[in-house]
Specification:
- This protein is mainly alpha-helical.
- It has a single domain, classed as Orthogonal Bundle (Arc Repressor Mutant, subunit A), CATH 1.10.10.10.
- The chain contains six helices and four strands; from the N terminus they run E-E-H-H-E-H-H-E-H-H.
Length: 139
């Protein structure tokens, strides 16, 4: 299913969500308007390395980021395969792969809009001037 986040179309694999699509679109609209910080949709995580990475991404609080290396350390892996697993995330936005960044860059983002959407999502979640200037440094 394709959903729109601002002007970007994002593909969500509804097979990994145990919720009606109307609930997904409602929660996405609330997130986009700033009324929601967390999604409370049941997500079926794959029984695989990608599922391990997704589980770690779900633990990243709204407004915070983790590096690929930090996620790798948490699951006893390496940054490159973590980045690859982030790119395979079947439910971006709901499982916040946009909150995973490189140690010296934003890293990639496989959803439509790529890094531009990732930057917009992170800016949406960050309020302070310091955090915004940190995002600007990744430009």
């Amino acid at each position: 299913m394709q959903v729109t986040m601002w002007e970007y179309g994002v593909e969500i694999d509804e097979e990994f969500l145990d919720a009606p699509m109307e609930e997904l679109t409602s929660q996405l609209a609330e997130y986009a308007s700033g009324e929601r910080r967390e999604f409370d949709l049941p997500v079926r995580l794959p029984d695989s390395f990608t599922g391990d990475v997704m589980r770690a991404m779900l633990d990243i609080p709204y407004g915070e980021t983790r590096t690929y290396g930090e996620i790798a350390d948490a699951i006893d892996s390496h940054p490159v395969p973590v980045g690859q697993a982030c790119g395979r995330n079947p439910v971006p936005l709901v499982v916040p792969c946009h909150r995973v960044v490189g140690s010296d860059s934003l890293g990639g983002f496989s959803a439509a809009g790529g890094v531009d959407l990732k930057r917009a999502l992170l800016a949406h979640e960050h309020d302070s001037d310091w955090e915004q200037s940190a995002l600007d440094a990744y430009r």
